[in-house]
Design brief:
By secondary structure, this protein is mainly α. It has 10 helices and no strands. Helix 8 runs antiparallel to helix 9. Bound molecules: protoporphyrin IX containing FE (HEM) (2 copies).
Length: about 290
């Protein structure tokens, strides 16, 4: 519940920021480029105007902050106990989605010179981030959001097994689901990974339905039933993710190999763009 409110809060900030920009500059952005100079808003909304320039600065600051805070939480050991890594990633995603959006308004939808390289690399990294997010969630993690090692995955399987063995219905369900998933082979290439992930998804839905029906039929106490269903769901999810883990990690490695150099190109060209702007005498309100 608290997590949902946190996400809703981020979405509200994002929507408010975009609405505020559209209310102020909507008319300017939809006016054809040659006619914009005749609008009263031009002085304020153009990329070097007080408002337009500010959007570039605030948007870039958001992207820099989004990377710096996530990278620090991920890499600096002293910060490892500070909230879940997945929540930090959500803030990274928020800042690195809203920041580029504000930067796009800063450009007033025209791009030339070295700034265009910065713009297109930024938008590519943003798009690749969305793909990366899908791979990220497939990697098994602990409650703090840190990646599980192979040994920790096995320990988790053992913990789930022990919990299910506590009840008779749990024992039967354990045997049933393990037998179902044992038939799925570990995929060896990208296509097979997609195929078996999908097959397991369908199996997972079926299994959950069967488990629910069996618990109901046996008149298991509601609290115990919920407990068993929760463990079964996490076991089935863990089986599904660990079967495709090798392939997903390989893809995630390639994904980093694209995401990181593009980020570097973006920053180098952004530094050049800021340098040129300062050289031309654009100081914003400073
Ligand atoms: C990733 C971040 C940024 C991107 C992608 C970006 C991109 C652009 C683009 C495409 C333009 C319009 C070029 C044209 O008129 O064809 C522009 C103009 C401008 N940008 Fe940025 N910008 C970014 C951040 C910044 C920052 C942080 C500053 C402040 C130091 C800034 C200062 C300016 C100024 C002053 C202009 C107007 C230049 C002129 O009219 O000659 N930009 N930017
Ligand atoms: C201009 C926009 C963006 C830039 C420059 C950017 C940059 C980065 C960088 C440098 C990292 C590596 C952090 C590290 O390992 O220390 C990263 C990780 C990541 N980003 Fe972004 N990102 C952007 C937008 C996004 C968006 C929009 C999403 C998703 C909606 C996203 C999702 C991710 C994910 C899933 C990771 C991997 C986390 C991990 O391996 O631990 N990014 N990003």
């Amino acid at each position: 519940m608290a997590h949902r409110m946190f996400l809703a809060f981020l979405a509200l900030i994002g929507a408010t920021a975009i609405a505020a920009v559209l209310v102020t500059g909507g008319k300017y952005y939809v006016t054809p480029i040659p006619e914009r100079a005749f609008l009263s808003e031009h002085k304020m909304m153009k990329p070097s105007g007080t408002y337009g320039h500010g959007l570039g600065i605030v948007g870039s600051a958001m992207v820099i902050l989004g990377i710096a805070m996530y990278s620090s939480r991920k890499r600096i050991k002293a910060l490892w106990n500070l909230g879940k890594l997945s929540s930090w990633l959500e803030v990274h995603m928020f800042l690195c989605l809203l920041g580029p959006t504000l930067v796009v308004f800063h450009t007033t939808f025209k791009a030339g010179g070295i700034a265009a390289i910065s713009l297109w690399t930024m938008l590519s990294v943003m798009a690749s981030g969305i793909i990366g997010r899908y791979l990220y969630v497939l990697i098994p993690r602990n409650v703090k959001g840190n990646e599980l090692t192979a040994q920790q995955i096995n320990e988790e399987f053992d913990r789930q097994r022990a919990a299910l063995l506590e009840t008779e219905v749990g024992q039967q369900l354990l045997k049933h689901i393990d037998a179902q998933f044992a038939r799925i082979k570990r995929p060896e290439n990208f296509r097979a990974t997609v195929r078996s992930y999908r097959a397991m998804g369908a199996l997972k839905t079926n299994t959950r339905r069967e488990v629910h029906a069996m618990i109901k039929k046996r008149h298991v106490a509601a609290k115990t039933g919920h407990y068993i269903e929760r463990i079964i769901t996490s076991r089935v999810t863990l089986i599904q993710r660990s079967l495709v883990l090798l392939q997903v990690e390989k893809l995630f490695f390639y994904w980093h190999a694209i995401h990181l150099p593009f980020t570097a190109i973006m920053f180098v060209t952004l530094a050049a763009h800021i340098g040129v702007a300062l050289w031309l005498g654009y100081r914003w309100i400073l």
